[in-house]
What we know:
Residues 6-99 form the Hemimethylated DNA-binding domain. By secondary structure, the chain is mostly beta strands. It is 7% helix and 36% strand. It has a domain at 14-75: Roll (SH3 type barrels). It is built from 1 helix and 7 strands, in the order βββββαββ.
Amino acid sequence: MTQARSAKFSLGQIVRQRDQAFIGVVLDVDPAYDGPLDVLGPLQRDQPFYRVLAAGPDGGFIAYAAEEALEPQPGAGGLGPADEARWFTVDAEGRHAPRDQVLH
Length: 104
C-alpha cells in the first residue's frame, strides 16, 4: 500500500522546474501520478504531481510535473489579484480552484 504525501506547493504558487526548463504557476495538484504509465519513466508515482501554467518563449503551456522536479522560485511571491482572478475561483474560506473546476 502506498501513502499519499501532502503537497509541498499550493495553487497560485510560482515554481520552477529544477532543470530550469520553465517557470510557472501551480494550477492544480494531484496526490499521485494521473497519466499514462508508459511515459512515467523513473519518477515515483506516489508523490504529488502538479499542473503548472509555464511561461515559454512562444507563450504559455501546461506542464505536468512531479514534485521532485519542482522547486520554489526565489524572490517570487504568488499571483497578483488580477492574475489570481483570471486563473482561479476563491471561496469564502480562501480555498483556490482552477476556473475550469468546481471546489469540493
